[in-house]
Write a structure and sequence with these properties.
It contains nine helices and nine strands. The chain has helices spanning 18-24, 76-79, 81-87, 91-109, 126-135, 137-147, 171-179, 184-220, 253-264; strands at residues 6-14, 36-38, 68-75, 114-116, 122-123, 150-159, 223-226, 239-249, 270-278. With 299 residues, it is of the alpha+beta class. The protein folds into two domains: 6-148, no CATH class; 151-283, Alpha-Beta Plaits, CATH 3.30.70. Helix 8 packs antiparallel against helix 9. Strands 1, 2, 3, 4 and 5 form a five-stranded antiparallel beta sheet that branches. Strands 7-8-6-9 form a four-stranded antiparallel beta sheet, covered by helices on one side.
Length: 299
């Protein structure tokens, strides 16, 4: 049982296995605290569910282990509601916690199917955490079944940074540059028009690439989540126009990656990046509203 000085921090939902037990023996969480499994609480009372500690029978009749929380203790002074509001403005602290959370989830995923939870999922004590686990065990079990033997991969499309000479990449743009009048005002307008045409051509490539990736995913993936394109320091000078996550069966993973890499060669003005394997962060919760496909370039 917790003391008032600590809270119970939960990283993910998983099922106990012997391989996972070996990994947990040395796995450390936030602040170097040991990570352990919390199992559903024992049934109590006349109306308690006697199956609280067991999963649903499989097709073979075997009963899998019930879902468990992977958890550790964290200081209450750092993770109470007031402290978290302040810490979320501290980028150094936030990066450390996010990285540790991710490292724990990835370490678990190397040995078992996991359902990653949001960073800073905390409970007042182990009893509260077990109560939530017991109440949600059937939903957690169903989602673990759906994610079993699957891994998340990301696919991103980047455009090159726009330049003043972008128009010279297309025939029309090059012709416009050669025949531009000598006047500085008209020359500027012609250059802008050539640049716009070049950007339209690159956006058209991006739309074609997105359609190609979708066709590849239809053959190899079982799920897709469309994240909003990234911007700022995450992308550098290049523009991110597609940021998809795919849930791929493990036996299809190599074929999926190879097909995306091969297709990228057909789009020389784009950078197509495949990331992963990741724990299925994007598929742990219901999919968010999908952002639109790459459309027209901005004016």
């Amino acid at each position: 049982m917790n003391t008032h000085a600590t809270l119970t921090y939960v990283y993910a939902v998983t099922r106990p296995t012997s391989r996972l037990a070996e990994a947990l023996a040395t796995l450390q969480g936030i602040g170097g605290a040991p990570v352990r499994l919390l199992l559903p609480g024992p049934p109590t009372g006349a109306g308690a569910d006697p199956d609280a500690g067991r999963g649903a029978p499989t097709a073979s009749g075997a009963v899998p282990a019930a879902p468990a929380f992977a958890a550790s203790e964290v200081p209450e002074s750092d993770f109470n509601e007031h402290a978290l509001k302040n810490h979320f403005e501290d980028l150094e602290w936030l990066e450390h916690v996010a990285r540790t959370h991710h490292d724990v989830v990835q370490a678990l995923a190397a040995h078992a199917t996991v359902l990653p939870l949001r960073m800073a999922t905390v409970y007042q004590d182990e009893g509260r955490a077990r109560h939530v686990l017991t109440a949600q065990r059937h939903a957690f079990a169903r989602r673990l079944d759906e994610l079993d033997a699957h891994t998340e991969y990301g696919v991103k499309i980047y455009l090159a940074a726009p330049t003043a000479t972008a128009g010279t990449r297309t025939g029309e743009g090059a012709e416009a540059t050669r025949t531009a009048p000598a006047g500085p005002g008209k020359a500027y307008l012609h250059a802008r028009r050539a640049q716009h045409h070049a950007r339209e051509a690159v956006y058209q490539q991006a739309r074609q690439a997105a359609a190609t990736i979708e066709a590849i995913a239809a053959r190899h993936a079982t799920g897709r989540v469309r994240h909003a394109p990234q911007s700022g320091a995450l992308t550098g000078p290049q523009e991110n126009v597609l940021n998809d996550a795919y849930l791929v069966p493990d036996h299809q993973a190599e074929s999926f990656r190879n097909a995306i890499v091969d297709a990228a060669g057909d789009f020389p003005d784009l950078r197509i990046e495949v990331t992963g394997p990741w724990a299925p962060y994007s598929f742990a919760m219901p999919a968010p509203d999908s952002p639109p496909d790459p459309q027209e370039p901005p004016p």
